[in-house]
Amino acid sequence: MTAVGSYFKIGPARLFVHAAVLLIVIVWLIPTLGIFVSALRDKDQIVVSGWWTSFVGSTQTVAVRLGTADQQQQEGAAYVISGNVLEGQTGRSVKAFGNRVQQPAAFKAGETADLGDGETLQINGDGSYRYMKNAAFSPDERPRRIYASVSAPPEFTMQNYKTVLTGEGIGQSFINSLTVTIPATIIPILIAAFAAYALSWMEFPGRGLLIALVVGLIVVPLQMSLIPLLRLYNEIGTMLGQPSKTYPGIWMAHTAFGMPLAIYLLRAYIAGLPKEIIESARVDGASDFEIFVRIVLPLSFPALASFAIFQFLWVWNDLLVAMVFLGTDKDHLVLTGSLNALLGSRGGNWEILTASAFVTIIVPLLVFFGLQRYLVRGLLAGSVKGG
Amino acid sequence: MLSQIVSALAVVVVAVFACSAYFYFSNKILDLALPVKDGDIRAASRNLNRRALVRPWLFVGPALFLLIVYLVYPVVATFILSFYDRAGEQFVGVANYKWALGDREFRQSIFNNILWLAVVPAACTFFGLVIAVMTDRIWWGNIAKSIVFMPMAISFVGASVIWKFIYEYRGGNDVQIGLLNAIVQTFGGTPEVWISVPFWNNFFLMVILIWIQTGFAMVILSAALRGIPEETIEAAVIDGANGWQIFWRIMVPQVWGSIAVVWTTITILVLKVFDIVLTMTNGQWQSMVLANLMFNWLFRGGGDSGRSAVIAIIIMLAVTPIMVWNVRRANRELKGH
Q: Residue A385's pLDDT is what?
């Protein structure tokens, strides 16, 4: 506990802090929670009630037709049609009912409603009803239409996931995303680590200039690269008689775009390794390649891991680079791309959108929560030092 | 599906292997070409020197190649292209720049970008700092931090879907399934199609980026706050300073450097923001920003490389001061080593 901490432990300020943080956490969590819950709901329920009501069950207004005249039975002077409006549905109950669409909940369940013309209707909570008339129901009459508010218990389903994984191309995109992401995470680490080692421990002319270049390039907006690279790719593609939008093409692009930050972060770490280890290895006759592979690489594991997470998240979540360098055809479309396409084509189908969104964010979230410690370490290595 | 997984795995292995092979064999060849073991000592020491001359470039070579081809060359090429016509063949002087100045959509984008730049970095830094200060004081602070940090892992497209659902609007007497409209309705307001309200829709889009980036600011600033010497704060407490004074007069000045880093990083991010606008509005209802305008011109009607190059140059100009500042800071740091 720091001194700052102990200061805040005094007085009512402490209670306020707890309440404020709780509020923030809720605000930050709710948006994501919304899609997680919705993706598990029945698609008809998503559109009739807010997802936040799904835990307590939903209430829907349904139209039902009562039985026909041939079901009527005489009871004394009255004729009765009886049955159940929830026929074949389990777990549901009737809260209220009505005979006009404007007032679908005019009467409470169990109440006897006077429908005029000597007709009365009683619907109980379990759905059973008694429809009475003081004269016989005529066979010519159409069965009567009434409205009921039916409450359903919380219901969850995996159907939406099945639909998007098989029908909407999300499964295919998932594989595409992995194909893009894995090499685009590993290759830049290797290349950047070698460069970072050279920039930290090898003497050569132009080293200072190179470091300045790397730092400067960190901020170059990606947009700058699009037009010239697109032309370059097209030219090379024509030259080789190959399509210009290929997986190796996007791996190179992601590798290059992640490079400045990778070298910067890894250099900060590798330069900080103890001088004695590297120098004594040199004295023992180890070449720089051996020193790098046998000593520096194993020692740099924390920095490599933190950059790997960064690059993984960045590549997995990227849309722009994939759209430009990989294209939007079915065989190449990455997850973010297909989610974006679904937003355009299935904008109102929230069961599709929420389930797809969940599929796209589950992998980064798992990586994130599994390796958060390394991610934070990597962030701090680059940003706080000397700040 | 299975065959695709297998072939994907195969390319992955080949790609990674090829990359490792480069480093292994290039170093091997260098060692074989310039032997130091046998022969006379003079030749050996000469070879050793030559090795030392070549080897660094084997190490930085691939990185340097990628940096130059993918980042340095494009900056120059884009600049040159900005003076050419839509196909990039005819020199047109500053015509594209003139077009930009006169174009309504371009001015709208500049205005919106300035709005984004004014709000998002400030909001993220402010919330990040406040949350960092508060979560450092409580026992469940780390859990709270994880939750605030979590959106960092979510793609901008995913985040857009998440927030589009919150802003969802239902017409007529339908039940509102969007959280925002449901809340508005509960408090007696009228539901709106939030993302199509000109001017204000910018803010609804900004909220998404703030939601994503506050966690980043929080992590950096939280680490900086921990670096404040305890004595300073103890002294202030003894002198009778209240929490507010401690925060503004002691904590904020001490973490000023980190605040600058966070602010800068998010500023760069805002200039590049593309996915959110594309997925939420695609620039409709006056929500266009430079990055999206550039993308549009890149592909609109067969593409206009001149005009999109101009827009890219404008974005580049905006980050240049930050770039210079970054390099200077890094140089200072290196000399201090």
A: 43
